[in-house]
Design brief:
6 helices, 3 strands, 3-stranded antiparallel beta sheet, 141 residues, alpha+beta, single chain
C-alpha cells in the first residue's frame, strides 16, 4: 500500500497546481466570445472533420449531459455550431462548427495554447512527458 500521508500530499499538490494554473490561463477567455465550456465543445467538434456526435462531446465534458445539451443549443442559437440529426442514430445529433465558430475558436486556441505553453515552460520536455503519463495513469486511461 502507498504511504497514505504521501498520497494525500501528492493529491493536494496536484489539486493546488491545477487550480493555480487554471486561474492564470483562464484570463485567455476574457473578451474572446467563448466561455471555457464553449471552448471545450469547440475543441471536440473541430477535431472531427465529419462532425462530432453529441454523445462524443458529452463524454469529453466535465458537466452533465443535460447541461451539455443546453450549452450546445445556446451555441447553435449564437451561430457557432450547427446541429442535425445523426443519420446513423435517430436519437442522436451531429454537431459541426460554423465558419464563424471555427474562426472564433482558432483565435482563442492560439492564444490559449501560448498561455499554456508559457505556464508549463517551468518543466522540461522529459518532465512534461512524465506529467502527461502520470496524469493519464491516474485517470485510468
Amino acid at each position: 500500500m502507498t504511504d497514505r500521508r504521501l498520497a494525500v500530499d501528492a493529491w493536494e499538490a496536484l489539486f493546488r497546481a491545477q487550480y493555480e494554473v487554471f486561474q492564470e490561463i483562464s484570463d485567455d477567455f476574457d473578451g474572446s466570445g467563448l466561455t471555457q465550456p464553449e471552448y471545450d465543445v469547440m475543441l471536440t467538434v473541430t477535431r472531427c472533420e465529419s462532425g462530432a456526435r453529441l454523445r462524443e462531446v458529452t463524454a469529453n465534458m466535465l458537466i452533465s449531459q443535460p447541461s451539455v445539451s443546453r450549452l450546445v443549443d445556446r451555441m447553435v442559437s449564437r451561430g457557432l455550431l450547427t446541429k442535425c440529426a445523426d443519420p446513423t442514430d435517430g436519437r442522436g445529433a451531429v454537431l459541426q462548427a460554423t465558419p464563424e465558430g471555427t474562426a472564433m475558436f482558432r483565435r482563442l486556441a492560439t492564444r490559449h495554447g501560448q498561455s499554456i505553453a508559457a505556464r508549463m515552460s517551468v518543466l522540461d520536455d522529459d518532465e512534461l512527458r512524465q506529467l502527461r503519463d502520470l496524469a493519464t495513469k491516474l485517470r485510468g486511461v
